[in-house]
Each structure stands twice: as structure tokens, then as C-alpha cells.
Amino acid sequence: xxxxxxxxxxxxxxxxxxxxxxxxxxxxxxxxxxxxxxxxxxxxxxxxxxxxxxxxxxxxxxxxxxxxxxxxxxxxxxxxxxxxxxxxxxxxxxxxxxxxxxxxxxxxxxxxxxxxxxxxxxxxxxxxxxxxxxxxxxxxxxxxxxxxxxxxxxxxxxxxxxxxxxxxxxxxxxxxxxxxxxxxxxxxxxxxxxxxxxxxxxx
Length: 203
What we know:
This is Plasmid pRiA4b ORF-3 family protein. The protein is an alpha+beta fold and about 200 residues long.
């Protein structure tokens, strides 16, 4: 039996050229899983706060020590619930300091391929910014600095990125294999969870 999937386009709209990814997402997945998929697709390291905005509501990870009645738990809302309300675009913000805003657009809703495991990475272009680079102004300054080998701060910028990631920053390299593997691991865990649930429910 096939399942229904939503093809999603994920973009950092303030970047030029545009940094974007495309994924197939099962509609019965939670927004928490969508967060995990965006992290995997973009190559973020998932150590900052995040939230979704859709249908005039906010979804994220409520802090039990900080009451916020306007923030709903992302793990409790399924993508299908928003789709059924007519939502076709979400705003996902990662790192409230650097404020990386992603526009998540539903491109299509269709039957998945028989036997395929979802979520699934499809394609994309350009590498996401490094963590803690300072938002768009910092990212633009970083790109300008590493593009000038004889510049005053070039060496420091290169060494900073190497220290964080173990290699130089290439704005064109998005490491698709790594993204596919990260999202593939999510798909495997989801499939295992569904199989375990079905086994418990069987007589």
C-alpha cells in the first residue's frame, strides 16, 4: 500500500543565489519530524532553538520552565492537519540569534512510490551557511572574506570554518550524499516504528 507524500521546497529566501532543497515528506509525519528533515537536508547541526509558523500559529519545543501559551508542541501536529486546513506554505526559523528563516512551500501532494521509504531527499542547490556565522550580514561578510585570499581576515575566516567543520567552505558543494543518508536514517527509524506499532496491534 502506498502512502501520501507532500513534495516540499525549502528555501532561504534572503540568499542570492538562492539556497534551497527539495524533499518528499509523508503527510502523516509531525512537524518535529519535518524539523529533523530540514536540518538533515540543509546540513544544520541542530543545536539552536527553532519554530514553525503556519495558519497564524507557532509550533516548536515548549519549554516547561518558560510558559508560552502561543507555542504549540510540534511533535503533536501532523503535516496533514495543516494541509487539510489549506496551508501550502510554512515559515521555519532556525537559530533565533542568526534568525535563519526558511520558506517551506508545498509543490505537490501525491501517492508515494510502492516500497519506498519516506521522508526522502530529492535535490537542492548551494551550501547552507555555517552555524553561528552571524545571520545574513555575517554570512555575506564571510563569503566576501573567503573569496579574497589576500584579504586581511581571509586566513582567520578559513581557519574558523576548518575548526568547526574540518574543511574549507565551498558555497557550491551541498554534500547531497550526506543529506540523503541523514534523511534516510529518519526514514528507516520511521519505518521501524511503524512496523513495531503494526506488530503490537496485530492479534
